[in-house]
Amino acid sequence: MASSSVVPVVLDVDTGVDDACALLLAALHPGLELRAVTCVGGNAPVDAVVANTLRVLDAARRPDVVVARGAERPLLEESVDARHVHGQDGMGDLDWPKSQREPDGRHAVEVLRDVLLDAAARGADDLVTLVPLAPLTNIALLLRTYPEAARGLREIVFMGGAAHVGNATASAEFNVFHDPEAAAVVLDACADLDIAVTMYGLDVFYEPRISREEAADLVAGGGHGAAELAGRLVAFQCDRFGSDSATIGDAGAVCAVLAPEGVQREKLPVRVELAGTWSRGRTIVDRRDWTGDLSHDPHGQARSTIDVCLEVDARRYADLWLDTVSGRTS
Ligand code: BDR
Ligand code: CA
């Protein structure tokens, strides 16, 4: 049972350079109890995602954390990956040691169900915060197959979507674009099951950044531990984008669990665009004054109203990550 100040979390990942940054934070911060990590195809094919996730948890000296393989492909879309951004192995091609550990024998969806039902049985103090940092395929399958697992959830804080910008296309963010049907199912199921949702999207995603110098300091200690891996991941991104700093990306969503006051958020109705020539996969965030007369809007208001992160205290989140991966947090 988690102590009242420690938040039980499960991460769903497509590791992924910035997923690796998020895993290091979740595995090492004393304010979180990382109960499991589930993997899905996204930045790289799912087998590479599993292998990368195990390597990161080895670097963090967390062989106790269950890792499970999940969906290989989106519900409907063809699989695409983002190895042009994350490297051929999906995690920066760092030649980092392979893990000797095997993933759990259960499918990711079964691990999610088991962890959440177990939390539900233990009571209100033990509810889990689910942090999807990848296409939402596993989460859609979970909530439609085992809706009773929602009893074990405190909330979902996911990286995906945006109110204003895209990256995979001019309209759409990668995680939602990769599996738009899954994202739509998750929002719908969360409305049905009364699950609180926070969207940590592209409006804030790029802002918490680590400099090349800070990365070099992390690498300097060597030893193939968390700090060295963290520094090398940031350095890879600086090189890839020809920049003097790099975002911690998905790790910001974990920061939003640890320090929720570090983001400014608004409760807003959100839909996922499932058609559209140029806009498929966009999160349509309704920022109108919908206390007014919407009777002429044939669509009406989205049934899913969620917390949308619109601004972030970027230096605070960067420091939270840096202090944790360098071992300065106690
Ligand atoms: C998201 O897409 C992936 O490439 C990153 O890991 C992150 O989860 C950003 O759009
Ligand atoms: Ca990711």
Automatic annotation (TrEMBL):
Stretches assigned to coiled coil: none
Pfam family membership, one: IU_nuc_hydro
Inosine/uridine-preferring nucleoside hydrolase domain residues: 9-317
Signal peptide: none
One GO BP: purine nucleoside catabolic process
Cross-referenced InterPro entries: Inosine/uridine_hydrolase_dom (IPR001910), IUNH (IPR023186), Ribo_hydro-like (IPR036452)
GO molecular function annotations of the record: purine nucleosidase activity
Keywords: Glycosidase, Hydrolase
Any GO CC annotation of this UniProt entry: cytosol
Name used for this protein in its record: Nucleoside hydrolase
